[in-house]
Amino acid sequence: MAVFAVIFALVLAFASPAHAQDTRLPVSASFSILSDIVKAVGGDRVDVITLVGPDQDTHTYEPTPADVAKLSGTKLFFVNGLGFEGWLPRLMKSSHYPGELVTVTKGLKARTMVDDGKTVTDPHMFQDPERVKTMADNIAAALSKADPAGANYYADRARNYRGALDDLIVWANKQLAPIAPARRVVLTSHDAFGYLGQRFGIKFLAPEGVSTESEASAKDVANLIRVIRRTGIKAVFMENISNPRLVQRIAHDAKVTVDGKLYSDALSKNPEATTYLQLFQYNIRALAAAMKDNR
Ligand SMILES: [Zn+2]
Q1: What is the C-alpha to C-alpha distance for residues 264 and 275, in angstroms, rounded to an integer?
Q2: Would you indicate the residue range of the signal peptide (predicted)?
Q3: How far is the CA of 131 from the centre of ligand 1 (A)?
Q4: What is the pLDDT of residue 22?
Q5: N or C: which end of the chain has fewer CB within 10 A?
């Protein structure tokens, strides 16, 4: 009987898929895009929990007690920082998170912009694939520290990911090359694409500021409609995370059609942008197609 029990236990230990997963490093990430980059670097050695999922808005998110419970079981918590997760200080205080908080934008130069007359830091660094390369290295460093046996594995994967991003940057420049600088103007809901615009020479206009929490003023909206009419901008987009109504109203009043949506601060539930690499390709394709119509 005892022998049987031992054999049974051994069979369970080798047969159970949970056995392999038990050895994975449990980590968490604040939002879907970051979660995907952590998965790209961490591969089979990590299990990633995501707080703010696909098509959800990180700016307006409110952590639930269930989220706090999920978070507490993870060794590392990856966040964007730069004020992107406005709820983070409150969460850290209330959750007594026992693991290590890793800010992936650390060491990267942030851009600032004027929002409602105030100079603010733009947190949307993940829209610049060049900066995402450094974010991947920061992620690899944090994973290696928590799981030293996987250091080479993480370094290899980060290098591969950097290579994929380099290829994408070359590809994006080719897509955009036929579009004259004067035509590279786009309207979206909120100021999420400043880094992308800086990298690829595109000017983004938005009725809302760097956060979707701020309301667009009637004066800003009226100004945008005037700008669209005067400049002949045809590239007008909604975003997957925000309410489309404001952009639709502006497009209607300015007598232009909405070109569809861009993926700003989250991956998609549909198959269009389920990884960061896909999200970036989708956005560049959509932007290039729409900007061709600008006069
Ligand atoms: Zn945003």
Answers
A1: 13
A2: 1-20
A3: 17
A4: 63
A5: N
- C-alpha 246/C-alpha 158 separation (Å) is 39
Cα-to-centroid distance, 225 and ligand 1 (Å): 22
Residues 221 and 244 in one domain: yes
The Å distance, Cα 173 to ligand 1 centre, comes to 24
Q: Which domain holds residue 236?
A: 178-291
Question: How far away, in angstroms, is 242 Cα from ligand 1 center?
Answer: 9
Domain end call among 108, 136, 170: 170
Å from CA of 84 to ligand 1 middle? 7
For ligand 1, the distance from its centroid to the CA atom of residue 193, given in whole angstroms, is 8
Q: What confidence tens digit (pLDDT) does each residue in 50-82 have?
A: 999 999 999 999 999 999 999 999 999 999 999
What is the average per-residue pLDDT within 172-182?
95
- 265 Cα to the center of ligand 1, angstroms: 5
Place of tokens 């006069």: 295
Q: Could you tell me if 150 and 196 lie in one domain?
A: no
Last residue of a domain, one of 170, 196, 215: 170
Q: 51 C-alpha vs ligand 1 centroid, how far in Å?
A: 16
* 204-229 per-position pLDDT tens digit: 999 888 888 877 888 888 988 988 88
Q: Are residues 159 and 221 in the same domain?
A: no
Ligand 1 centre distance from Cα of residue 213 (Å): 9
| Angle, in degrees to the nearest 10, between helices 276-291 and 32-42 | 130
Give me the amino acid identity at 204: F
Structural domain count, the chain: 2
Same domain, yes or no, for 277 and 165?
no
